[in-house]
Predict the structure of Transketolase.
Amino acid sequence: MNLMITKEIRKSILQMVYRSKSSHIGSCLSIVEILYVLYFKVMRIDPAHPDNESRDKFILSKGHASAALYATLAEKGFFQKQLLERFYVDYGLLPGHVDMKAVPGIEASSGSLGHGLSIGIGMAIANKLSNNPGHIYVLLGDGECNEGSIWEGVMIAPMLKLDNLTVIIDLNKLQGYGRSDEIINQSNIIERWKAFGWDTYDIDGHDTEEIEVALKYYHSMPKVIVANTIKGKGISFMENKLEWHYKSPNTEEYQKALAELGD
Ligand SMILES: Cc1ncc(C[n+]2csc(CCOP(=O)(O)OP(=O)(O)O)c2C)c(N)n1
């Protein structure tokens, strides 16, 4: 079941990016298992009632990986899968960076990196004030963690004891133009977040059981899950290759990738 759904999500991402000749396929492929576990195993959400007051909320702060979120929402039944054909095309419906007004199920627009954590903290505070049981999940890129605004959020969330907030860092170790540890070395990222008072977890971000256990584990403080992932995961020639941040597959590459993902 896990495998079938994650494979379908990967196929949708591939088709969307190929059709629109757009970027960020590697960034999408590293977060498929995380999105799958959130939307199919953990979050209390109902595609038939996307505005339910007490729902859990997810913010994809690395909004350039929009294709992965749109594909997961379609798979979950928030909207018809056919709408994915309208990704990043002229007169399309689904913009290249996440748009909360495009389709049901999206909680925040994103794309300018560094804002999702603060938005999530605001939502978590609002839920506390109104006794709303909804939990807030925020997914950050590891390169995105170079943004100063992220560290304002890292400092304030434990002070406010936001135990209704979970952050997942997609540690795929690559950014747009290079390796994360060569740009700003945060190889001790867990110790850094821990020092500010976060509950920390270090997991394999492609192991769905590990992801589920980490997400469901009780925590009294805000939690950060550092998910070790592979950029381009699932398509062999894209794995851990910087060029697939911006590159779009040509027809030959598309066919090869599709064959790898199989039926
Ligand atoms: C504020 C801001 N600066 C620059 C960019 C351009 N940009 C898009 S993706 C990216 C790299 C992000 O790297 P990372 O967070 O590691 O995500 P990944 O794509 O590796 O998953 C950059 C710099 C942006 N979207 N927003």
The mean pLDDT is 97. Residues 2-261 form a domain with the Rossmann fold fold (CATH 3.40.50.970). The chain has ten helices and five strands. Strands lie at 57-60, 136-141, 165-171, 199-204, 223-228.
